[in-house]
Design goal:
This protein is 30% helix and 26% strand. It contains 7 helices and 9 strands.
Length: 250
């Protein structure tokens, strides 16, 4: 993005990258944020080692005490991490230049792309179309249509949340709300605000996926972002040492 100043920094936009075959095969569906959110909420859930377990009498079932087998400094897994962000969607600029998609549907296409992240995969549009043509012609489904039928049903696609080079993590959409604020003559939304909650998938959860290239990418992204945290934390230790040395009177 160039605004006329040679020293202007490159503006990176956040995005959600969906790995699925529901559209035109195995190509990723990249949902680039029209505007980067002004704020991003992030939380880490700390493991509770103080949770007590009841001891019951095997004969009567009566609770006779409590026990805790876990050390108070236990942290058996990476803390679950969640993101909350609000996305602004606006078709005004596209309407001014006569963009045909915006003229007909406003921002409904962008809302639909976000909503589909919550729906299970059902094969690709191209594969289903070819399959329908094959059936209508009396042929046997092969090639792309057979590949579409092999897509597991009842599973949402693997999703990456990209927020600059320092934060690329596999996530699952856990909450989605949209507020439509203006409408076209055909009642398609022209402006909207989508509130999205994302849960970062842990390495253990990623390993539950079926083996695929998208699984390998998700695992690599998780490890890469985690390693960056470690590097940044180490850099902070170096700054702390310098600060302590600066405080010494000698």
């Amino acid at each position: 993005m160039n605004n006329g100043f040679s020293r202007s920094p490159l503006l990176l936009k956040g995005a959600l990258i969906e790995f699925s075959e529901r559209f035109i095969g195995p190509l990723p569906n990249i949902i680039i944020f029209q505007y980067n959110p002004a704020a991003l909420s992030r939380s880490l859930e700390v493991y509770n080692p103080f949770k007590e377990e009841n001891i019951t009498n095997q004969d009567s079932g009566e609770v006779i005490g409590v026990r805790n087998f876990i050390s108070t400094d236990a942290q058996p897994m990476d803390p679950p991490e969640t993101f909350t962000l609000d996305l602004e969607l606006d078709a005004t600029d596209d309407l001014e230049i006569g963009d045909p998609v915006a003229v007909v549907t406003g921002v409904a296409d962008r809302i639909a792309a976000l909503e589909m992240l919550l729906y299970p995969e059902e094969g690709s549009l191209l594969g289903n179309l070819l399959g329908s043509i094959s059936v209508s012609l009396g042929g046997v489904s092969t090639g792309a249509s057979a590949q579409a039928q092999d897509v597991p049903r009842g599973k949402v696609p693997i999703l990456l949340f990209v927020w600059g080079p320092g934060r690329i993590v596999p996530v699952r959409v856990t909450s989605f709300q949209v507020e439509e604020e203006a409408f076209s003559p055909l009642l398609y939304p022209v402006q909207a605000k989508a509130s999205v909650d994302l849960k970062v998938l842990s390495e253990t959860e990623i390993n539950l996926f079926d083996d695929s290239l998208s699984k390998d990418i998700a695992l690599a992204a998780y490890k890469f972002t985690r390693k960056q945290k470690q590097v940044l934390a180490a850099a902070n230790v170096a700054n702390t040492v310098q600060s302590i040395l600066g405080m010494l009177p000698f």
